[in-house]
Automatic annotation (TrEMBL):
Protein name: SDR family NAD(P)-dependent oxidoreductase
Domain of life: Bacteria
Keyword field: Oxidoreductase
Keyword ATP-binding set for record: no
Species name: Planomonospora corallina
């Protein structure tokens, strides 16, 4: 059987790294990216992955990722996991810095869509899948989370339409729930974040999603 290939963004820590480790153990070939080269290479040690450090909001970096996909002969899975939090401490929308929100939209919405566009021919050819990591903040109203939540709501709707337009590709926008990650700690503090489960806790549900390949749609884990 042909070895499956996955491209995971934001793979140096958190959910991206936990999923990468699980897929590597299952025999997947991995292309991993994150902004920090040192952290990415350290995290990927032993996984046999191709690591390409860079910012997915940078068109030149996306071109490098698309070239790596072609060099690997195609793509079976794209995981858009890289994400920004935005302004901290989390501000109300009445005072949200618009320049920060503009940057956040570029990272959380435009970059995932642009990367999808770049690798979609390979995903079509392999009848692959896209996992866009979302949040409950995309659907619920939490004070202070308006900027971040708006970007995730936009990503959800892009995913929703993409699922209709690309019936040969599975598209899931996934809410993994609250996880003990650096991003959550930055938002709510380390003490509160430490009470949440680690990202590895939701990986089994993600693996079941990939193996079961249900219809495209919004998925709440686990």
């Amino acid at each position: 059987m042909t070895t499956k290939t996955a491209l995971i963004t934001g793979a140096s820590r958190g959910l991206g790294l936990a999923l990468a480790r699980a897929l590597a153990a299952d025999g997947w070939r991995l292309i991993l990216t994150a902004r920090g080269a040192e952290a990415l290479h350290a995290a990927a040690g032993g996984l046999g992955a191709l690591t390409l450090a860079g910012d997915v909001a940078d068109p030149a970096h996306r071109d490098r990722l698309a070239a790596a996909v072609r060099d690997h002969g195609g793509l079976d899975l794209l995981v858009n996991n890289a994400s920004g939090l935005g302004a901290t401490p989390l501000p109300p929308l009445a005072g949200y810095p618009l320049a920060v929100l503009e940057d956040l939209l570029r990272t959380n919405v435009l970059a995932p869509l642009a990367l999808i566009q770049a690798v979609l021919p390979s995903l079509r050819e392999r009848r692959g899948a896209i996992v866009n990591v979302s949040s409950d903040a995309a659907a619920a109203a939490y004070a202070g989370w308006g900027g971040y939540g708006a970007t995730k709501a936009a990503l959800d709707q892009l995913s929703n339409v993409l699922a209709v337009e690309e019936p040969e590709v599975a598209v899931w926008w996934v809410d993994p729930g609250e996880m003990n990650t650096a991003m959550l700690a930055e938002a709510v503090g380390e003490k509160e974040a430490s009470a949440a489960p680690g990202p590895e806790a939701v990986v089994p549900a993600l693996l079941r999603l990939l193996s079961g390949r249900p219809a495209s749609g919004r998925v709440i884990l686990p």
